[in-house]
Structure formats: C-alpha cells, structure tokens
Amino acid sequence: MRIVLVRRKKPLKYGGLVVALLSLLSGIFVFTIFAWLIGVNPYPVVETIVTTFIFPGVVKDFIILTLLGYALLIAFKGALWNIGAEGQMHMAFLVSIYITLIVFFTTEKSLPLYISIGVILLSIVAAVAAGALWGGLAGVIKAYAGVDEVPVTLILNYIAYFIGDILVYGPFRGKYVYGYARTDLIPDPYKLSIPVQRQLSGNALIDTVTGYMAEFATYAVWLVALILVLIFTYWLLNKSNIGLRIKILGSNPDYLVSLGYDVRKTMVLTFMLSGAIAGLTAALYYHGSLYRIEYPLEYNTASYGYLAILVAWLSMLDVYLVPLSAYIVSAVILGSQRVSSLPSVREAFTRLQLGGAEMAFKLLMFGSILLAYSILRFIQDYELKVVS
Amino acid sequence: MSSPLLSVANITKTFPGGVVALDEVSMDFHPGEFTVILGENGAGKSTLVKIMYGIYTPDKGSIILKGREVEIKSSLDAIKKGIVMVSQIPQLVDRLTVVENISLSLTRIGMFETMTRVRRFFKEVSEKIGIKVNPDAKVWSLTYTQKQLIEITRAILLDAMVLILDEALTYLPMEERRKFYVYLNEFKEKGRSVILITHKIPEALEIADKIYVLRRGKLVGALDKASANIDKIRDLMFGEAAKTITYERFTKPYETPIGDIVLNIRNLVVEGDYGEIAVNNVSLSVRAGEIIGIAGVVGNGQRELLEAIVGLRRVREGRVIIDNHDVTNKGVKLTRESGVGFIPDQPLRYAVSADNNIVENVAALFSRKNFVVNWKSMRELSEKLINEYGIYPPRPEMHVKLLSGGNIMKTVVSRELEYASKALVAYNPTRGLDEATSTFVRRKMKEKAVNSKLAVLFASEDLDEVLQLSDSLYVMNRGVLYGPFDPVSTPRSKIEELMVV
Fold it and tell me: What ipTM, to 2 d.p.?
C-alpha cells in the first residue's frame, strides 16, 4: 500500500472559488500568527482584516483592479505575460491630461453638458488608443524582434514613468501648483465621479450599507464600464475568431502557423487589446478619482498595474472569477494598510526597533495569501490517493 | 516454464474526463522472451508501458519485478530497476554528438563511463547491427534510423533487463528492422526480456514469442507464436471492423478521370532546419482527382518538400504554382485560402492546440474568415467528423490533450480532408493509426479525390500505403525525387532499392 499524487480526473467542483477563499483564510491565519509572534494581540488584527471585507473603501480599488484584471486576462490567455499595465496606464494618463488640461482647459465651474461629455469621451478614446499603442509596441518588440515580453513590458513601464516625469516637470506642470511638480487639477466639468453626501447614522450596519451605496453611486460610470468590459472580454474569448486565435496562441502557436494565421500580428493584436483596456481604466481613474498626476509618476497608480497581475492569476484566468479575485486583492491591500496603522502594531514595531517596517508588514500578508494560494492551486489539480 | 521477469497484475487506469484506458489488465513477461502488445488506436498499449516505465501511476494494480512487488516512482527509477523504454520519437539532444548524448543519460542515473569507453562500446553495437554512425557526429545530422539505433544502444548500455520498444521500430525500413531483430534476439537470449508495442500485425508476427492483444483497455487475447495468425489477431483487435482491412488497391491507377493541373512544383530547392539542402531540384505536378504518393525513408526531404509546398518553409529556388497562381514564398495563409488541406509531420506539435477542445480546433480552421465564430455550426461539424471517423470518446467538448495519439490523428485527418477543396498535402496521413482506421482513412482520401476532384500529394514511410493509394508514385532519397513509377507494374524491390541506396 502506498500514497501517490495523481492528477484529478475531474476538477474540484467550485474549485476556483474554494481555492480563492481558502487561500485567503489561511493567509490571514499565517499573518496573524506572525503578528502574535512579535507580541501583537491577534484579536484586533483579525478583526481589522475581516471587517475590511465589508468596508466601503474597498469599492474603488475593486473596480479599478477588476478592469485591469480583464486587461491582463486577455494577454495571459495568449501566454503573453504583459506586466506592463502600469506603463500602458501612464501613457493613457498623459494623453488624457493633454486633452483635459492643455487643449480643453477651462476654469469654468460648469460647461454645457454636451461639451463636458464630448471632452470626456475624446479623452477616453485617446487614452484607449494610447494604451493600445503602448501595449502594441511591446507586442511588436516581442513578435518581430523576438525579445521576451516580460522585460520589455517592464522596461516600457519605466520609460512611460520617465516620459511622464519630464512632462510633469515641463509642459504639463500646472499654473496653480505653488512650485510642486504636478499638473493642475482636472477642471470640474470633466470629472466623472458623482459627489454623494451622506449622513452617518451611528449604526454600524446601516452605515456600512449606505457607505457601499454611496461608493457605488460615486463610481457609477466606472461600474457601467466594468460591466461592458466584462461582457466584451467574455464575448472576445468565447465567441470571436480573435479570441480563439489568442487561446490557440497560448496553447500551441505552431498550430496557428500551420493554419495560415499570422502569429506575429496575433501577438501584437493581443497586446493592443490588453493595453486598450488598461488605457480605458487609466482614463476612468483619472477622470473619476485621481484628477491630477504628480512627480514621481509611479506613485499615481498605487501599483495597480502590478496588483492586477495577482488579480489575473488568482482568478485562474476565469472570466467570472476576476471580479471576485479583484475584490479579495483590494480588501487585502486595504486591510493590511489598516492593520499596519493599528496602535498595537506600531507600538510593537517601535519596541522591536523596527520603525518603518510597516510597509514590509503589509506585504507579509500578501505573501502569506499567495503562498497558500499556490499550495491550494496544486491541490485543486492533484489529489493524494492510496494505492493498494 | 521459468517464472516471469516482470508482471503486471490487475492494472486499472482512468484518465481525466473519465476515459478508462486500462481495465484490470494482467500480463507476464518472461526472460528470454520477445513479447508484443498489439491493439488498435486508444486500446491502452502506450498507457500500459508508460505505467511500467513510471510515467503514469496506476489507479489500481501492481507491478511485480523478479517476484517482488515494486513501486516505480519515475522513469529514472524504472531505469535503475532495469526497465528501459525507447519510444517512437527519439529523445536526443540535437545539438550534442552521439557519444555526448549517451554519456548524458549514463551520468543521469549515476553511472560514470569515459567518453572513450562509450565510443568503443557504441562502435561494437553499431557494427553488429550493421549501421554506420560516426560517434562524434552531431545528432541533428543523422537520419531517423540512426537516431533510433542510438536510442536502443543507449538502452542496452543502461543494462536493461526489460527493454520496452513503444512503436520504436514501426517506422524503420524493413531492411533495417531485420538487422535490429537479429540483435534483439541475441539480447533476449541473455535472459532478458523485450516488449514491443505496435499496431502493425505483420511486424508482430515477424518476431514475437508471445502476443497480447488489448482492445478498449481490456486484455482480449494472449497467443503464443504457434497459434498466432493475422486473421485471428485482427478479429481480436478490431472485432467486426477487421473485415474492412485491406491493402488491395481501391481502383486501378488512373481508372477514374483526372482534370487540370492543380499543384505544379517546378525545380524546387529547399533548405532543411540546419541550412543543408534538403530538397534538391524537385519537379512534379498533381492533377485534380489524381493521387501522387512519395515513398521514402524518413528524413530524406519529404517533410521539407511538403512544408515548402504549403508555404511553411522558404523556397530557395524554383516555383510552387497552385491552381495557376504562383504562391512561392507567399505564406501559408494564401495556400490555405486557396483550399489546400495539410496534414503535417508530428500532428501533435503542428496540427492541434492541445489545451483547446475539438470544436475550437475545428473552428480555428473553418471559421478563419468569420469575425464572430458560428459555434453552433462548428459544433455540428465537429460532431459529424467525430461520428464519421469514430473519434473516441465522442465528445466535441473534450480537450484534445485528453485524447489518445490515434484519436488526435483522426481529428487532424478528418478536419483537413473536410477542409480541402482543391488539394490535400499530407505527410504520413495514417501514422499512428491502426489498420482498420488506416484503411478507412485511405478509402476516404480516395473517395475525396475522386468525388471532389481533389489533387492529393502525400508522402509516406509505409510503402504498402503508397502502393495501395497512388496513381503514380515517386521515391525520395537524399532530397532527390525519382519517378514517376507505376504502382502496379514496377517491382517492389526496385522501389525499395531506390529508397535506401
């Protein structure tokens, strides 16, 4: 009799969901143990993390990360490891800023609706194009020069950051910024968020519910975009010829060749689609929440482009699981931020002379969750069996 | 009777998707015995030996080596226990020399031999088998036969007690195969055991001391040399379908009318993977409704020729004209769009996307022009192909990687034959298919050529196939095309001679 590891005949039912949730739980568990080891009472740590999952502040990150998750999902399906969503977003920011702060700049508090909508739409379209071109550039380098896309997209991120830095120091620097290296704020008529006023009732449950409603109302336009992108991604991958080509590219590009498709063009196209959605996300983020960019540029996105890689992986490239995994990632980021600013954690760090290590502490939870995820991902595909 | 060297008992294996590959299979392999395992495509032959070689783990059952139950954890473990497998495709590093390749595998299991000793031993064996291979030649420059020789030499050097040949000799030319038999007989006389996997009955009858027949994962027969004959085995292997097997010609050459020239190849010169001249000044033409076969031992330029015709490989000199359009070096897209079906060598590598299902694989070819794929019609087409060609299991949503090698081949052949409207270019169209399915595929090719006025150009390492199917045949050897010959009146010996000289 012996125990062997074999591949499952059928994937686990609801496996994706179970894996995502279990890795979350075990990651939090490992993190709490660590907190306990440095002398922090685990109770407030767990409480903070858990309550973050029902915390309205998650909504913003959730929408942005879902959108970016879809951008990367498309590239990953084609086995193109686009880690350049950051750069694609930044190029999109720059064109949006050019349109809203240079070409159509206004100090008016309000403009006729058709002008507002026209400028916003133009900015979005230009951002989508910029993202697609920056993504497509990575695709061209990969397809025609044969350079691996991982370093290429990463390098293109930095090129985008630095182009932005130059512009923010130079022509894009605002008139009303008191010497800071940043752009002006976006004119009010071009803002996409809907300001919502709400009164706190003092009841935690009611405030949470109204909080979510307020957030969703504020980012209503983003939500509409999210639904459209979801539908588009599903349609692309499951109905269209391009999606089929992307999937075959991810599995066996030689087959594409013998069918007479142009593999290089397919690569570039895949990157462009991925970059286009990243560009769209950037425009929405700029018009709806960021409002300006400032030096150094990489701080503007709070690493969304990289976090989206986690979102796409955590979803196991399943179109339906992207929002779930985006929600988990957003809650974990926010939760770990809140934990590292807990008084007991700060105190422990000071005691251990680790002041300033909060950042690392924040990442620790992320690491724990990813570790648990990779183990569970394996269990989803394989099982232990006793052979007699 | 001696006790078996190796036994498998009650082996059961089910694959993802619930396909039962093996169902309670038990076999004994005695020392000094040459055992052949026969079966049609997807019968479970390869699965069984992969279990013995530690590649798969059985769901149930045991492996008994020299009377003791053993657990084979990996191929490395199998080699250490004296079980060595040689597969159909040589697993050698192309950029290294012969001796380097052999030493590589020795050090991997912890044996250490000097290059000089390896070189000496290698020479000994190769002289015995009568094939000259320079031990310092780079592997890429060798022919398929030579590579297989190296594989077998390596297995012997690894001190194999049980030598498993998974279709390893099937594609060798008759002449070479005979030489191997002599050597293998000597090998088994030393109290060792040889297991050969094949779907070719004549090959089995040539050499087997004992024959096991598998059908749909079950052991349906165990015959010894005296009681085995081709009809009996065919019945066991195929049941009812055995009656359909034939190597007789379907029609006499040029009995059915042919039309205008569809494929016109003029003075083609094509380079191989390493810049060598693989196709040397080849000209031929194929008319609508005509079937042209190219016989030849693998590695003589057939693959490069066919790839150049469909646009997968650059043409250095000469012209490829399809349907009066010059398509030389204009890419696969153009040839495909002009209605050319193509069955490449190594279909698993070039002709399917394993992570996608059958419908998606079919749609990739047929919906090439549609921006939105019509999935309903693609599914219906897939179901039609599955039914017509008996692809098993009959599930259009099955991922191709879960199908057996033969069923993958059927998927490819059915798809390409269905797609071809002007011409079909095929390399080993029935490679890896069992006799009943091969006959069926050849019949389909013939039907399609006659009914749809298809120009068919195919190359095959199976001379019987070329003789059965072609209206005219050519022989390709070292990049040069000889012919055309009449398949009925030309003596077989003349063709065989041209293939190897």
Answer: 0.84
